[in-house]
Each structure stands twice: as structure tokens, then as C-alpha cells.
Amino acid sequence: MIGGFLKNLFKNKVMLLMVLPGTLWFLFFAYLPMLGTIIAFKQYRYSRDGFLASIVQSKWVGFDNFKFLFSTNDAYVITRNTLLYNVAFITLGLILSVILAVVLSEIANKKLAKVYQTGMFLPYFLSWVVVGYFAFSFLSMDRGMLNQITGWFGMDPIQWYSDPKYWPYFLVLIFLWKAVGYNSVVYLAAIMGIDRSLYEAAMIDGASKWQQIRSITIPMLKPIITIMTLLAIGKIFYADFGLFYQVPRDSGTLYSVTNVIDTYVYRGLKTTGEIGMSTAAGLYQSVVGFVLVMTSNYIVRKVDKDSALF
Amino acid sequence: MKKKKSFTIMLATLMACTLTLSACGGNKDNSASSGGSSEKPVELIWYTIGAPQKDTDLVIAEVNKYTKEKINATVKMKMIDYGDYSQKMQVMAASGEPMDILFTSSWAFDYVQNARKGAFTPIDDLLTKEGKGITETLDSAFLEGSKVDGKNYGVPANKELPALEAWRFNKELLEKYNLDISEVKSLESVEPLLKTIKENEPNVTPFAISKDYMPLMPFDYLIEKMPMAVKLDTTDYKVVNLLETPELKASLATMHKYYKAGYVSPEAATTTSTDDLMKTGKWLMDRASTQPLADNQWSASYGYPVVSTPAGDSIVFNWSVMGSMQAISANSKYPEKAMEFLNLLNTDKYLRNLLDSGIEKVHYEKIGENMMKNLPDSKNYDIPTFSIGNVLLTYLNEGDPENKWDEFKTFNDAGKNAPLLGFNFDTSKITNEIAAVQNVKEEFWSSLMTGTVDPDVYLPKALEKLKAAGLDKIMAEAQTQVDAWVATKK
């Protein structure tokens, strides 16, 4: 039995060697830290004998660390905001990225296409702090560009940072501006991989550009679209901290539309610094994400077995 | 066969690598038993606050020469910048990173909380033995005020003890419009000045405030910037909700009036710093905490004259006592040596100035018995003077009056004790409520305090939400703890 195992090991040594760095990475940075989730059920106190001793000696508190996530009516607001924003990001992001990828692939001048692509790609590399200042240069009450433009038409300046009703649009817009260029590259690569002869055959049959896109490009993209969406659903309970904290400049009056799980946890714990409570929040997000991925994958498998993740 | 061998070797190497990696975290006693004897000097690992400096190694080499001789110990100083300090230290303390001495305070890497979580070694015994010099030189109010549950966990730096808030003014503008600040004290009293500037200088922000601003209130807070407080002149130690007090209501109404009049920036509630105003000089006044001769310091650092006048009384708060401390880490292998070093640092003039200003004739030169002048190279070694120890030992800067430290002593003696001095709120039973209240507070605080919103509308809203989040429970717990503490004092 063991001999067989070793023989098998030897036979696949090249493959195994190739997978080794990745395995080690996962082992040390993904599986090993998972043991730390027990901190979520403890009141973490430091021990002089190091980290492991601290974990062992800290008091068990059951689910106490999770309470703060659900104890107030803010719990509803943050859950709603996190979920709805992410749903908007996933659907709009998907639609726009695919459209953009198709458009880019159809541009005849390849050099120009590269220029557009790079331009779309750039915002992805900006930090949210920088994006926050970009937004501020538009939205500042006294010096912002937007208020100056509306001023030309005789409108009163608007206090953008204290009026929640505009922010759902701003946040979605800013997110898409930053993310779409990057995501479209994935779809563009997939389009490039589609067999050209399919299009040639379609053209001979007299299919228009629109028909080609609808009947060849989109169906061929379906598997990758499904995978990307499933992966995004796994992160539906995580919100981009920078987007929701830096971009609205942490303005209190906007919390009803900008407070998400991650910012709530940050604000709630920065004075007490309880590691147990932040671990609890992280665990909660992971568990919900896990459940959502499993269910949506299950549904996908029922509908179309080949598109499912596993 | 040969192929197989090379693969096994590679696998073994990889395994070895990972083992060493994982071992890094867990090594505890690699050189334990060399504490007492005079053979091998002990190396103390020291984390302190401030931007890392280019010449740190150079200066520390010089420090080590001296300390090796004096106490048979060397230090390894690691500096972490202001913005990162709390967070990085929190992680390092939680993960048991080896360290001996570390900076802590009421405003960075919170002293009381981390003492309670067990990050520091209690130093009461060490102070009576290795730290005698400290107890002799330090104003006893410092050690008394920085006790947590009856024990000392850190050595406070000898410096200004009370907190005194002052209105600061841009002197050029005062002179241009012939404004008089001798009558200024309350928030209401500055209105005519603000008005003059608003009318005559459209490009100047009359009252420079950021989102951290709050009106000066005669209260002692249980947690800084949280609404639970005790009145400064209290006799019954009743914990009140700041937002329900008539004093705050009146001040917020004034702030809202100022906001509507355009005396403060329309973006005040989201502005994180007023540095750009200070740099350009386009401001008339703001509020800041002061200390003796602060006007000179401000004027020197901004490059134009700044004058100030007190905005309140000089009071010794918990947080002002704990403004700057050096503690000994709970996992330190050499707590006695660490205390010996701290003792030397707080009593030895040569060591203190070496660490503060760098090497003589490289970073500074002496221009008198007790006075120095920075040399151009001082920009390579510029660390916050207040952060590492006894400030009163440092040489005077060029232009400082001879009696500077005497003025500090007078200033310290003039401070009145705040009612809760020595009391530390233990939040471990109400962490959930604190987290919830904190979120509600952040939602309303800045916009109310800066006057951005109408207090008549938003104050009741904030109160209602705070109560729903559990503020009453926190106040009740606070009252119980305060009462118990008052009882032990009598």
C-alpha cells in the first residue's frame, strides 16, 4: 500500500514538484491560520509565553464576540448595504466588463485597442485614498468641480458629503470605473481564445456582427462568466473597505448608505481593540460566503453541469 | 537513480526551509541564562514612536558603548511612525513578538487597555530596586496617575503634567486688523474677531477646525471622545451623558451659528487635518493644547508669529499624565535590565541628550553650558523629544530662556487634579455596547461638534440612537465602577 503510494509519488514527481510551492503557500497562509478562528470564541489576553500560550490561556466566551454584529438596528443597515452594493457591483460589473471586452475585441485597429485597454486598466492600480481625493476634487462643497459647473447654471452649491441620497450612485459609479477595465481583460482573453473559424463560418452564412456576438461570443463566454460570478458571490459579504471609508471621507451623515460590515467592525473596535471580536466578524463573513458559494454552485450544477466550479 | 536522489535532496531542502521559517516564530530561550553575570551584555529590544531616522544606527552604536560600560546592556531601537504605531504594536503584542521596552500612551498603543490585556510587566517592584532614580526625579503625580488597578506598568516621561487648552492666533492678521485677544476666553467671546476677518479677508478661514474638533467642555471623560463624563467640579461623581447637558447644547448652538456664518470650513466635518491652513497661514485662530513657551515653538515651526491665550483651566487628566510612557513588555526576558536602562535614560544627562539630539559635533554642537544648536546633519536624526524620557534633562535649544525647565515645574504645580484622576474605566464587560455606541457616535459626532448640522434637529436623533445602542448600560456600568473607586479613596 505504502509502496504503491511512493511509486505513484515517483511517477508524478514533476507534476508534484510544480504544485509544491502552491501547496505550501496554501498550507501556511490559508490552512494554518484557520486554527486561529478559535480566537473568535475567546476573550483574547496576552500571555508572556507567546502567541500559542495566549490562545490557550484566554477565557472561552462562546458566541459573545459575535453579539455586537447583531445587537443594534445598525446590523440591518450594514447587512443591507453590504449585500445590495455587492449585488450591484457583481451584475453591473459583469455586464459592463463583457460589453467592454466585446467592443475592444471588435476594434479593427489593434494598436488603438491596446491604448483604450490600458486607459481602462489604469484606475485599477490606484489606491482608494487617491481615488478618494479625485472624488473630493469633484465633490468638495466650496472648491469642487461639480458645484462650480452647477453654479454656472445658477444652481445652489450642494453639500455632497452630507447628503446620503446621491451616494449609492457615486459609489457604484466609482467602483465600476475602477474595476471594469481590469475584469474586462479576463473576458477579452477568453474571446481571443474562441476559434476564428466559427466566425468565418457565420460570416459565410451571412450573419451580422450582432448575430455573431449573440450566437458565438456570448455562449462561448458563458463558462468563464459563471466562474467569475461564482467567485464574486463568495465575497459578497466582504465590502471594499477603502471604497466605503476613504471615498466618502468617513462622513458621519452618510453612514446610512456607506456603512458596511467592514467599516462597522473597524469603527466599533478601534477603541477597544478586541481581537476576538474582529476575528468573529471575519469568521461570520467567511461562513456566509462559503454557504453562498456552495448553494449557488449547487444551483449552477443543476442547470448546467459543465459550468459549475466543482 | 541519480534523478531520484536530486529530487529527494530538493524536497529535503524545501522541508528544511519551511521548518526554519516556522521555527522563527517560536524560539523562546536561545540565550537565556546569561542574565546576571558580567560576561555577555544583554541586548534590549526597544520599540518607540516616530519616523525612522537615517542615523539611528550611528547614534545607537554610540549609546551602546556607553550603556555596555554602565549597566552591561545594549539596546536595539526600532522606530515606527505615528500613523502605524498603534496598529503594528497591537499585532506584535498579540502575537508575542520578542521585545523588551515599548512606547505606550493614552493616544497611541493605548496604555490602560494594553496593561489590562497583559501586554506589560508590572513595574512596582522594579521601581523600588532598579528604578530608584526615576521615583526620585519624577513628579509623584505621574506615577500615581498612571496606575492601572493599583499597579504601575509604565515609566512616564517627566514633562508637562496638566493639560491646558489655548486659542492660537495668527499674529499677522491680529495686527493688521488691530484685534485684541486679552478679553478672549470662551467660545462665544471670539465672535467679533471671526466676524472682522470673515468680512475683510474672504480667502482666510477664520476658525481652523478639523473633524477631531470638539468644543472645550468642563467635563472629565471616562473614555476620551465618548459621551460619558463627570463634571470637573463634581462632588457626587455622577456620570452624565455629555449630549444631554445644557453646556454642550449651548456650545453646539454657537458652533452651528459659526458654521452658518462661514467662520469654519464648509468641509470641516470631513477634514482630517488643518495642516494646509497652517502652512499657508490663511487662518485666524484655532484651538490647541499648550505648554510653557509653546508660542515660540509654533512660530518657529510655521515660520510666522503665532500667539495664544488660555481657553480653559490647567487640569491634570488621566490622559495628560499618560501622554508619553515607556513600558516593559510582558514577554521581556530581562525586565531588571530594561528597568536599569530606563532608569539611566531618565536620570543620566549624557545618555538622554545623546538619544535625543544625536552625537555631539555631528548632529549638534554645544553653545553654552546647557544649550545646544542643531547642525545641518540633525535632519538625519530627529526624534520626538517627549517620547523617550525625562524632557527636563535635555539641553535647551538656541533662543530658549534659561529658566525654561523652571517654567515647566511652575506649570506642573499649577495644574488642578481632574475628578477621575487615577480611575480607569474597565470596559471588558460591555465591549459589545461600546462597539455599537462607537458606531453611532461616529455617525453624529463630527457633524455636530463642528456645527455642520443643526443641533436642535440632530442632537435628539443622536441621543435616541445612542440609547438604542446601549449607552445607558455603559453609563450604569461606569457609575458602578466610579462609585466603587470613590469608596476606596475615602
UniProtKB/TrEMBL annotation, chain A:
Localization in the cell: Cell membrane
One GO biological process term: transmembrane transport
CDD domains linked to this entry: TM_PBP2 (cd06261)
Any one GO CC term of the record: plasma membrane
Key words, A-Z: Cell membrane, Membrane, Transmembrane, Transmembrane helix, Transport
Family under the similarity heading: Belongs to the binding-protein-dependent transport system permease family.
Official protein name in the record: Sugar ABC transporter permease
Organism: Paenibacillus antarcticus
From TrEMBL, chain B:
Keyword Signal: yes
Domain DUF3502 residue range list: 419-487
Keyword Transferase attached: no
Listed InterPro entries: Bact_solute-bd_prot1, DUF3502, SBP
Entry coiled-coil feature ranges: none
Protein name: ABC transporter substrate-binding protein
Signal peptide: 1-23
Pfam families for this protein: DUF3502, SBP_bac_8
The entry's keywords: Signal
